[in-house]
Structures are given as structure tokens and as C-alpha cells.
Design a protein that fits this description.
It is a single chain. With 253 residues, the protein is an alpha/beta fold. The chain folds into 2 domains: 3-101, NIF3 (NGG1p interacting factor 3)-like (Udp-n-acetylmuramoylalanyl-d-glutamate--2,6- Diaminopimelate Ligase, Chain: A, domain 1); 105-221, NIF3 (NGG1p interacting factor 3)-like (Udp-n-acetylmuramoylalanyl-d-glutamate--2,6- Diaminopimelate Ligase, Chain: A, domain 1), CATH 3.40.1390.30. 32% of the residues lie in helices and 24% in strands. The chain contains 9 helices and 11 strands. Helix 2 links the parallel strand 2 (39-42) and strand 3. Helix 5 crosses helix 9 (226-240). The longest helix has 15 residues, at 226-240. The protein is elongated. It starts with a helix and ends in a 6-residue tail after the last strand.
Length: 253
């Protein structure tokens, strides 16, 4: 199978054309006509993944986060972030799915909604004309203490912090979620939401949520992405009739 054929299969699950307009997805390192010689999935590229590829004769990596996220002014190895060049040097193809996987049917956002058993699900956070990254709906009435336990159980992580408004909530019914970093959609969070769950929340985001009268809860960034990625890998493995290993840095999970 060639790289372009693999991308065609990926598009059947998670159409890359649905990614955010400013996102970097698809084949970011390598050549479309290259033959796939063993395949793994990595949440991010790093030196550990490069070593695994070289030791196990793997020439194709599908990543969640874009393997190339900055613009190179040159191809000098002294560049502040030259890791992608190491993959290019070793003829390793890297395909990234990122926000295409967030918004697709059965993707990261839908998997979060499923994990938290949201009912009457609606969308928010338009990523383009046809897709939205946010999901919101209702859960069985729950205390904030039990909701935190639910988060930590469902996502296998710890709640990092939350805003003052959340600390004063007694019961929770309506929940909104965005995988990864969802603070760019804060202004689109529906007015009737009790709690918004996402990652990468700064101090002024907490203050904004206080002002708008909804709780906001921060968890580790990749913890909100891992469930949907596992579902994607399971589906892709089935389509290709192979077993695809998934690597991520548990320190950040």
C-alpha cells in the first residue's frame, strides 16, 4: 500500500478536508507514492518515536498533533525546532489528522459526548461551514464533587483546576466539551451550560467564565483526545486488517 492509498482510507473515517482552515493535516513529511513499510500512531512526534521507527523498520507514522507546526525560514539543523527534519532525513512519512479527527462523526468530540453520556446533544464552536468541534447536552443531575470523580474516571486523569463559579455550583445538569484546547470557543458556549470541560485554560479564561456565569474545568490537554484516538485506531486497524500500536507520553495524559 502506498501513502496516498493510506490517506484515502483515513479520509473514509476522518475526512481531512473537514479540519480547521488554519490547521496542518494530511501528509506533512514524506512522499505520497512511498510504500508503507510498517505503521504506528503517535500522539506527537518526538525522539522516542524516531528511535522506535528506526529500530523496528517503520517508515510511516500517523500523528494526532501536526508534525510540522511552525514555518521554517531555512532548513538549517540549528533551527529552533528541527525534529521534523530528522524524520525527513530517515525517510519516515508522517501524516497528521488533528482537528479533522476532532470534528468528524464518531471522532474526538463525539467520543467525549459518549463518555459523559450526554443526552439531547447539540453542537457549537463552528470550525468551518459544515462542522463544529463542541458538543453539549444534559446528564443526570450530579453534584460537582461527583462530576469531578466522573471526569477523572472517564478520562483517567486528574482535574487540574476550575473557576470560582464552578466551586459554588451545587448540582450539574448541562455540560459542554471540546477536546484539546477549546478556549477559543469560550464566547460560543451556550448560555444554559452549567460546566464547560476542556484543556489549556488560562487565568483570564476563568475570569471570563465567572463573568458569564458558567463553570469551567481544566484537565490535561491530551486526556480529552485519547478516547477518540483509540476509537480511530481501532477502526483504521479493522479496515487495514493490521494491528496499529498507539504511542503517547503518559506524563502529559
Amino acid at each position: 500500500m502506498q501513502i496516498f492509498e493510506l490517506i484515502n482510507v483515513i479520509n473514509e473515517i476522518s475526512p481531512l478536508s473537514d479540519a480547521f482552515s488554519d490547521d496542518k493535516v494530511g501528509l506533512l513529511i514524506g512522499k505520497p507514492e512511498s510504500e508503507v513499510n510498517n505503521l504506528i500512531f503517535a500522539h506527537d512526534i518526538d525522539r522516542k518515536i524516531l528511535k522506535i521507527c528506526n529500530e523496528k523498520n517503520i517508515n510511516t507514522v500517523i500523528t494526532y498533533h501536526p508534525a510540522v507546526f511552525n514555518n521554517f525560514s531555512d532548513l538549517n539543523y540549528n533551527n529552533s525546532y528541527s525534529l521534523p527534519l530528522e524524520y525527513l532525513k530517515h525517510d519516515i512519512n508522517v501524516i497528521s489528522v488533528h482537528t479533522a479527527l476532532d470534528v468528524c462523526i464518531g471522532g474526538n468530540s463525539d467520543e467525549l459526548a459518549k463518555l459523559f453520556k450526554l443526552q439531547n446533544i447539540k453542537t457549537f464552536g463552528n470550525s468551518n461551514e459544515n462542522n463544529s468541534v463542541g458538543r453539549y447536552g444534559e446528564i443526570d443531575l450530579i453534584s460537582k464533587e461527583d462530576f469531578i470523580k466522573m471526569i477523572e474516571r472517564n478520562l483517567n486523569t486528574s482535574v487540574i483546576r476550575y473557576n470560582k463559579y464552578f466551586s459554588e455550583i451545587e448540582k450539574i445538569r448541562t455540560v459542554a466539551v471540546v477536546p484539546g484546547s477549546g478556549t477559543q470557543f469560550l464566547s460560543e458556549v451556550p448560555k444554559n451550560i452549567d460546566v464547560f470541560l476542556t484543556g489549556d485554560i488560562s487565568h483570564h479564561h476563568f475570569l471570563y467564565a465567572d463573568y458569564k456565569n458558567f463553570g469551567i474545568v481544566q484537565v490535561n490537554h491530551i486526556s480529552t483526545e485519547i478516547p477518540g484516538i483509540k476509537k480511530f485506531i481501532e477502526t483504521l486497524s479493522s479496515k487495514l486488517e493490521i494491528k496499529i500500536e498507539y504511542f503517547y507520553e503518559s506524563f502529559y495524559g
